[in-house]
Amino acid sequence: METPLDFRFELPWPPGGPLVEVSSLEIERFLLGRLEDPANDPTLALWQLARFYKQTRQPEKALVRLRQLLDWLPTAEDLAKCYLCMGQTMEMARDFPAAAGYYKEALALEPMHTATWYFVNNNLAFCLNSLDRFAEAENYSRKAIQTDPNRCNAYKNLGAALAGQGQFSDAAQCLIAATQVNAADDRAFFMLRDLLRDHPELQFEFNNAALCCQRAVEAAARKLQELKPVVHRGWRKHLILLRAKVRALLRRLWTGFL
Questions:
Q1: Given CB 3.0 to 4.6 Å as the disulfide criterion, which of 30, 49, 51, 184 pairs with 220?
Q2: pLDDT tens-digit profile of 47-72?
Q3: What does CATH list as the number for 39-149?
Q4: What does the domain layout of the chain look like in residue ranges?
Q5: CA distance 71 to 173
């Protein structure tokens, strides 16, 4: 009798207050205002702008702000995080050679923060897989797993690197491990499903595990749907924003009174 597989779900924290729909233009104006306000920390404002442009898929604007940040960051650790963000920006633009170059810049700074080291190695592996440089990608994936075995992405990238080298059974095991670490991320499961479809000789060995992965992914998807927050629009949005402005004004008045 096979030992049942254990699965974990990495679910998002629910928001601390009501959510309102805000346009990209409104957010950009707000963040630019924060950058222009001399009372604000320019480093934080630049980070916020760069992340906004990255998330809204405006890589050119994101890179402008990140390059500005390089002049403000005081430590090698902070610089490594900035190069990591630059690599992620180019990765989203599907410029994998440029992204890999930025990740290698970050690696050269030898960041000590676990998350930074993990994502630099992991994301570099993804880029190298995308460039069909599978042996190199395997090396960086394994480094990421050694850094933090409780994240799923590096197992997925290792699975892709091994499959690219024809090591299909080992690849399937990595994709199962990725789903076990976080069944809320279904990408590794779909890669496993495609791998078993393309290589039916693996189905006898891995079909039961694939079914377990499928059930876990479906359970995680149901849970995520239950946690999906309500986003307020229209007049409800304006009412919530007005309340927030009034509370902020009262706090400033109270602080000034004290």
A1: 184
A2: 888 998 988 889 999 999 999 999 88
A3: 1.25.40.10
A4: 39-149, 167-228
A5: 44
